[in-house]
Records
---
Amino acid sequence: MSKAANTRTMILTKSFELIYKQGYQATSIDNILATTQVTKGAFFYHFKNKDEMGLAMINEIIFPGMYASLVTPLLNAKSPINDIHEMMRVVLLKVPFLRAKYGCPAVNLIEEMSPLNEDFKHALLKLTDQWQDAIKKSVNQGKISGEIRADVNAEYVACFVVAGYSGIRNMGKAMGSACYNIYLQELKNYLKQLG
Amino acid sequence: MSKAANTRTMILTKSFELIYKQGYQATSIDNILATTQVTKGAFFYHFKNKDEMGLAMINEIIFPGMYASLVTPLLNAKSPINDIHEMMRVVLLKVPFLRAKYGCPAVNLIEEMSPLNEDFKHALLKLTDQWQDAIKKSVNQGKISGEIRADVNAEYVACFVVAGYSGIRNMGKAMGSACYNIYLQELKNYLKQLG
DNA sequence: GCTTTTAAATACTAATTAGTATGTAATACA
DNA sequence: TGTATTACATACTAATTAGTATTTAAAAGC
């Protein structure tokens, strides 16, 4: 990677860390410059303004990072009940750069920024859509294999699971990671009921 | 109500509306003053600073408003499966001052402010705690009446329901209220499985 | 090797921010 | 009726904000 590309990536990854912990609006450009040791000239050479950096961060850091944890594990799913639950367990308890007290970076940004920035909203919706789609396909696969009842609405299940994740991430911010295990238990009960 | 108490209440209710729509940090004191027609002197006479106003808004506007919709309907619950579902239906589809695109004011504030302000976090946790407690009591009541299986963990159910609400409110911000009906359908499936 | 383009450093600006200092009506109370 | 106290109004300040203008160094292309 060239030196220029390096500073660009560095700005994005450090900005991600700060924004993940503090929120987008609470993270000032000066704050980013102080922690990256990058000068203002360099920052505005690589990004037209703060929002353009934020959008790049969503597309280049958050999207691929979350996609790998949320969508990829479902792509060759064999048993939706186990696979969806296991995907959720890993995301909540195992992914190292996610911390209960800071929630989920994608969920946080939807909450904070979707009323304020249409571009952010659409970029984050893309992730949600693809995750829901992967869950839906997994459930439909389960209907074919017979693990899932034929009358189950795969799209509804996907919506419910995504909403549940988003919600438990929010709860975890105020109550800590203890609620994650509770959620996983009840998610299992919900999923079992689909069979 | 005295004139002074009137301006105080007016500041809180208008601040609530602005903060509900824009978020806490995106709502400046000047923004509040402009929409209330209250002067800066009046504002800082009633509140030591912005955060003290925010805390008063949580305790005096958000808490009682949400309590009436979330907790009160469950206090004399007869059938948890129906009552919890109906409570959720009313909250999502009927409460007039809540709009899908703005989410839930309590959920929004937990998301935005719980990492930044301990007082906000605790004030909002109080609401969550009491809501979970009401759900738990309702489920335990159902276990006595026989509507709910004896092996169901009421606390887990409460956690799962609260997380689901929080999550679907977040989804609704980006996707609109269509997902509310889907969520309600799947919530019903989850609740039925408890019996 | 010279020139052009890329990448970045420095110094500035205009707007907005929360909050203060001070002054003045209105109200309560003695 | 005089006097506190309450409830505001106005004008200011210091810090922070995103963003710009200008200069300079590094690299690439010829």
---
Amino acid sequence: MIQVDTFDLKMLAALQDDGRLTNQQLADLVGLSASQCSRRRMRLEEEKVIAGYHADLAGEALGFELIAFIHITLATHSPDNAKKFRELVNRVDDIQEAYSLTGDADYLLKVMLRDLKSLSAIVNDVLMPHQSVAHVRSSIVLDRLKESMKLPLRALER
Amino acid sequence: MIQVDTFDLKMLAALQDDGRLTNQQLADLVGLSASQCSRRRMRLEEEKVIAGYHADLAGEALGFELIAFIHITLATHSPDNAKKFRELVNRVDDIQEAYSLTGDADYLLKVMLRDLKSLSAIVNDVLMPHQSVAHVRSSIVLDRLKESMKLPLRALER
DNA sequence: GCGTATTTGCATGCACTTTGCACACCATCT
DNA sequence: AGATGGTGTGCAAAGTGCATGCAAATACGC
């Protein structure tokens, strides 16, 4: 685990909020000079504490109005099935996130789609017929209470 | 839904990948001049197609090694309970994402934590005792197969 | 076709970034 | 104490990127 001091934490928190902050703005926020922020930011990028910067697009504005979570149970727990399923997940780019889980479902997928027809297509035409998949249960998101995309860095402060 | 042409889509895709691209880099990627990219980017920001830019922090590097999904069922479906639960979710900043869902669980939470003890604390000390909550089921993430954070913009082309 | 509106590239002044450099601070060893 | 090396800092200057005005080019309506 990498050495990160209070200045770094402040910078990380600020950049989590606004990934395009200039070094000068950062400097004003954390109380260092711009050059120092530049250097520290480079260090954090190089050490991969900052994995990258991404524009956050408004899905609704672009017509992606439907988010759904899909719980998947595999047919059998053979390595072969797991591998095939992984390939499926990576091939379908409507699948935004995929996790393997403890508990009664094997995998949890998050998909972002334009309409119910697309969800139906994914579930009935792509997932259900796939040989590795035994069981599919999908839930549609009714409301997004919270979607912070931010780590609770406050937990790291001392 | 907002008017977005091919240039915009290319820019959005590029900025999804790297939110700190300069206008000049953007220009080279999409085939416009830098000034034009600047103007278009400003437009996309103003029209909230670009909701923001965020640094993507490496959770593991900072000690957040545990991701879990928590399914919640509310005690009763009163508006009062829903409101109380919302407040709870917003207060606890270990809860990164929260959705209300169709299907057999009412809510799905995503938490990012430092260890199992923290998960236990959230589940047993915060969620379970809360008056609005009837049932809690948590699943730990074993593997992250995919975590793209990117919209499949290709669906919008042509 | 002709006029209007929009989009484009270029040029420019301004702001931001990055680098070298000198200095301050701290720990360690003699 | 004093010397030594490492790290972190601000400042200044040179390089780089950004935003805006402007004129040319393109698209659009009638």
